[in-house]
């Protein structure tokens, strides 16, 4: 039997002492994942168990929640759960039950990570899930980006330590450890596409290749490596060919048309992602329509795309914008000293004097320590404005705040939400992102301020 603990450890997905949210449904995969992570003793991980009750199976769903709660208790781990009426959510938003459940789960896991200062979210996707995902995307129509499927270290904190492990190997592990798990009765419902692929299509494909799941997962890994290279080339071309401001991405048509069609389509995807932060409902037909707009002889024409996106050709300029961009509110707020301050963007800023900690790393981007001597009150807090510059901690010379946003891949529509904190006219913190050099705490620093920014919902 494979040493699954060694397989997870050797991927080096987690930093020593890291806080990790573990998504546990109660099924075999997630129970095995939690058990493996608790055995990474050298890493000293701080685990938080999170469970979303989908409210789809009545008493069975409630029993799953109770099972996971008891599991967390046995491991002496914190447990957080939430109940979501996924059926109502799906009906209201026009999603399938599977898509609605996925969106609800990941929104909850990210919220738990934010509250607990976690820097990773561990989910239990394994090799067979990877194979099924490749087939689903192939059937729905996907290019290299989609067929590369899932990665062990994904975007937005997600980690998938079990992608090298099959479902059968996980069950062997659980049996060897005498661990029990819950079985979701809906997993046998073949009217659900993923279940149909698992129970009907893959067994048929095994007649042609008994190791079809391993081969599909290996194909996804090869495509992911290719995708990484192509994305690097796309980013380099985007920097060379595109210009950005607060609410638009602009290409020069003549230079754009000198590039290969495949790169142009990737550039359009990249530009749309920069504007909106995702590519939901953007299909190949939309990218081809943009390319036709760029190459047509008409000097002025436009397209409307899903998600309030608009692409406009005006002579030699191809502009990507939001058709109805949100109104950016300009506000300023004085912070005279310690206390809690409700900001006009709905966030809360808390400031308090503390003893200088031995370790300045807080584990959360929303909490920082600043030198009180070098950052005298009153402070000014306001949103980002074009032209803002600061000196990031550990650097010499100034940098545009806009460049920080671009490097952090912060979508354009989110940038006005980031508060900037000023002392004596100089940025001391781009809240939630980067401390300014002016606020540096050193061994010679006297008074220290602990500063936190919190999202507040109405």
Automatic annotation (TrEMBL):
Residues 379-451 form the Lysidine-tRNA(Ile) synthetase C-terminal domain. It is an enzyme of class 6 (ligase). ATP binds at residues 25-30. It catalyses: cytidine(34) in tRNA(Ile2) + L-lysine + ATP = lysidine(34) in tRNA(Ile2) + AMP + diphosphate + H(+). Keywords: ATP-binding, Cytoplasm, Ligase, Nucleotide-binding, tRNA processing. The keyword Ligase applies. It is found in: Cytoplasm. Gene3D superfamilies: 3.30.465.60, HUPs (3.40.50.620). One of its GO terms (molecular function) is tRNA(Ile)-lysidine synthase activity. Its EC number is 6.3.4.19. Pfam families: ATP_bind_3 (PF01171), TilS_C (PF11734). CDD domains: TilS_N. Coiled coil: none annotated. Ligates lysine onto the cytidine present at position 34 of the AUA codon-specific tRNA(Ile) that contains the anticodon CAU, in an ATP-dependent manner. Cytidine is converted to lysidine, thus changing the amino acid specificity of the tRNA from methionine to isoleucine. NCBIfam families: lysidine_TilS_C, lysidine_TilS_N. HAMAP family: tRNA_Ile_lys_synt. Belongs to the tRNA(Ile)-lysidine synthase family. The N-terminal region contains the highly conserved SGGXDS motif, predicted to be a P-loop motif involved in ATP binding. This is tRNA(Ile)-lysidine synthase. It comes from Geomonas propionica.
């Amino acid at each position: 039997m494979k040493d699954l603990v060694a397989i997870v450890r050797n991927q080096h997905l987690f930093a020593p002492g890291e806080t990790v949210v573990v998504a546990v449904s109660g099924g075999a995969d997630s129970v095995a994942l939690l058990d493996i992570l608790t055995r990474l003793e050298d890493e000293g991980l701080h685990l938080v168990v999170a469970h979303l009750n989908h409210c789809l199976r009545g008493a069975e769903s409630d029993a799953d929640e109770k099972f996971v709660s008891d599991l967390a208790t046995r491991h002496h781990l914190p447990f957080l759960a939430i109940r979501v009426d996924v059926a109502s959510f799906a009906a209201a938003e026009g999603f399938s039950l599977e898509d609605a459940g996925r969106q609800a789960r990941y929104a909850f896991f990210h919220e738990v990570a934010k509250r607990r200062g976690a820097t990773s979210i561990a989910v239990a996707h394994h090799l067979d899930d990877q194979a099924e995902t490749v087939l689903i995307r192939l059937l729905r129509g996907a290019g290299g980006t989609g067929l590369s499927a899932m990665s062990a270290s994904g975007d937005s904190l997600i980690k998938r330590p079990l992608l090298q492990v099959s479902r059968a190997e996980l069950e062997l592990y659980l049996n060897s450890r005498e661990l029990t798990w819950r079985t979701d009765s809906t997993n046998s419902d073949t009217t659900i596409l993923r279940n149909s692929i698992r129970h009907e299509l893959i067994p048929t494909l095994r007649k042609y290749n008994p190791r079809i799941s391993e081969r599909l997962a290996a194909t996804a890994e090869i495509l992911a490596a290719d995708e990484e290279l192509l994305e690097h080339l796309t980013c380099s071309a985007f920097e060379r060919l595109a210009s950005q401001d607060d609410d638009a991405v602009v290409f020069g048509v003549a230079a754009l048309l000198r590039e290969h069609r495949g790169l142009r389509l990737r550039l359009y995807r990249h530009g749309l992602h920069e504007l909106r932060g995702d590519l939901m409902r953007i299909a190949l037909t939309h990218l081809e329509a943009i390319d036709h707009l760029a190459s047509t002889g008409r000097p002025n024409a436009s397209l409307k795309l899903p998600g309030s996106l608009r692409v406009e050709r005006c002579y030699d300029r191809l502009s990507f914008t939001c058709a109805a961009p949100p109104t950016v509110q300009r506000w300023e707020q004085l912070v005279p000293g310690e206390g809690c301050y409700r900001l006009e963007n709905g966030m809360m800023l808390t400031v308090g004097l503390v003893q200088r900690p031995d370790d300045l790393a807080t584990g959360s981007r929303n909490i920082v320590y600043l030198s009180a001597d070098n950052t005298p009150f009153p402070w000014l807090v306001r949103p980002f404005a074009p032209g803002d510059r600061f000196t990031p901690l550990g650097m010499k010379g100034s940098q545009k705040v806009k460049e920080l946003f671009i490097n952090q891949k912060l979508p354009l529509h989110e940038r006005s939400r980031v508060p900037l904190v000023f002392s004596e006219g100089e940025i001391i913190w781009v809240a939630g992102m980067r401390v300014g050099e002016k606020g540096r705490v050193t061994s010679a620093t006297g008074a220290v301020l602990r500063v936190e920014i919190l999202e507040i919902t109405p």
